[in-house]
Each structure stands twice: as C-alpha cells, then as structure tokens.
Design a protein that fits this description.
Rossmann fold; 2 domains; two-stranded parallel ribbon; 15 helices
Length: about 300
C-alpha cells in the first residue's frame, strides 16, 4: 500500500519539496532585510493565491511538513512566519492581471519599480530651503491637466536668486508623472565652452541612449525623432540666448502632456520661446530673509 502511494506522487514534486528549503530560506532572509534595513518588498504571487501561503495549503503545507522531521523546529517556525508575513504584503496575483497575461504583469511591475526608484534619480535640492514650497505651489496651480499640448514653464530673475533650486524642486515634483526625463545643467557655460551641439547631445542622451551629434542640423533631427512620441519632462538650466532654444525645444516636437522647464536671467528668452507660464522669482520677503539669516548665522 505504501509502495503504491509513493509511486502515485510525481517525482518532480518530490524534488521540489526537497529543494524548496532554499526558497524558504531566501524568503526568510528577504523579510529580515525588509525589517532591519527597510528594503522594499514587492511580492508577485505567480499562479498562487496569498491565502494558500498564509494558511499553508497545498504544496506550501507539504513543503513545511516535509522538513519538520529533519530540521530544527526554529527553522520551520521561521519559514511558516515568513510565508504568513509575505502573504499580507500587497502585491500582484498573476492570474488576476489581465486574465493571466504575463506581459501586462511585467509592464505593471516595471512601472512600479521605476516609481519606487524615482528618488534615486531626482535632482539634489538643499535641505531646509526657505520659501521654495510656496513658489512650487504657485506654479503647480497654473498647470491645467486638460491642456492638450506641451507646457513650457519659464522661471526668470537675477543671478543667484535661486532659479535653479526652484526649478529642481519643481522638476522633482513632476518626476513620477513621466517615464522620460532630461536635465541639461548650466546651458550658458556649456554653450560658451563647447557650443550648441554639446547641449543637443546632453538633451538626447538623457533619455538613456548615448548619441553623438556631428552638426547642429543632425542634432535637431535627432531631437525631433527621439522625442516625437515621448511624453517627457525636460529641464534646461540657465539659457541666456533665445537663439539657442530653437535648436533645443519646440512645442511641436514633443508628445502632448510634456513639460519643459527653462530658467534664465533674461525674460526676452521666454517671450520668444512662447512660454505658457513665466514666473518671476523675486527676492525673499523680510520674514523669509530673517529665517534664512538665522539658519546660517545660528545653525
């Protein structure tokens, strides 16, 4: 009777139970890292329901029971707790995503991972800024989600007043709404040293694919072709000549919903760029100036 029962079990299933302890160890270690180091865990329940893991049904229960006889109780208990813990973390059940279509699941997971990683790629902004949040809110309030075109937002003001810092904070605020991003820093200085081709190359390469630009016309063609079907967030820092912009951005080159942020000392640059919103960054108010002074003077 027992001999017949053994032969009724799939040999592959027996091997799976034998080696499942490595998977259970990995799972327990992953959750230890989550608890101790704050790592993000995104479970994918591939052709299994979380409740099966939580209540040790099916092969999960078989795997635990298979190891109870030859392993210390503490190990088995740890694995049981790991299965229960992972089942309570919000994730994706493969069979419930687009009727089990794995391509759709992959796309959702990749989007989520990129969203979680967004902080890694955001621009560095100094801590404890004074007055920046108010400026960001004012500019954000001007954005109309129903607008079917490309937004060009210009920030202008005297040198050293904080235009770049404000634009970085705004860029970070919009960041997670876009799959494609391009940041070109110190455009004025770069142009003086290396010319417009270098700016074009930086703009294109920010999409993730390196390119070489042999002349300005080729750069123009590449920008149009690379960005034509991409909803992108673009930041051009310190543009001082409107003639440069005609080789870098135009409302018609980008997919609807794209946003271009430009900082400049010269308001005429924004006039000729047909910016939808031009934000004049003035000096700090008396109260804000006092706060800033005290932070630096008295730490």
């Amino acid at each position: 009777m027992q001999h017949d029962a053994v032969h009724d079990i799939d040999p592959d299933y027996i091997r799976e139970l034998r080696f499942s302890k490595w998977c259970l160890r990995e799972l327990a270690q992953i959750l230890k890292c989550k608890r101790s180091g704050g790592q993000i865990v995104l479970p994918i329940f591939y052709k299994v329901e979380p409740s099966q893991m939580r209540h040790l049904k099916g092969r999960f229960g078989d795997a635990i029971n298979a190891h109870k006889e030859d392993l210390a109780e503490m190990f088995v208990k740890e694995w049981e707790e790991a299965l229960e813990e992972i089942s309570c973390i919000k994730g994706w059940e493969s069979e419930k995503i687009d009727n089990g279509h794995e391509g759709a699941l992959v796309k959702i997971v990749v989007t989520k991972v990129l969203s979680e990683l967004k902080g890694t790629f955001q621009l560095i902004v100094p801590q404890q800024l004074v007055g920046i949040d108010d400026h960001v809110k004012q500019i954000m309030s001007l954005i109309d989600a129903k607008f079917n075109g490309t937004w060009i937002i210009g920030i202008y003001g005297m040198g050293g007043i904080g235009k770049t810092t404000l634009a970085k904070a705004l860029y970070n605020k919009f960041f997670d709404q876009f799959e494609y991003h391009s940041f070109v820093a110190d455009c004025r200085e770069t142009y003086q040293r290396e010319g417009i081709k270098c700016l074009q190359k930086q703009l294109i390469s920010s999409l993730g694919s390196w390119c070489d630009v042999s002349n300005v016309d080729e750069g123009l063609r590449l920008i149009k072709s690379r960005f034509a079907h991409k909803k992108a967030l673009i930041f051009l820092d310190d543009i001082d000549d409107s003639a440069h912009l005609k080789y870098l951005v135009d409302c018609g080159w980008f997919k609807a919903g794209s946003i271009v942020i430009i900082t400049t000392r010269n308001k005429d640059v924004l006039d000729q760029a047909s910016a939808y919103h031009m934000y004049h960054l003035n000096e700090l108010s008396l109260d804000q100036s006092l706060i800033l002074f005290c932070r630096h003077a008295f730490q």
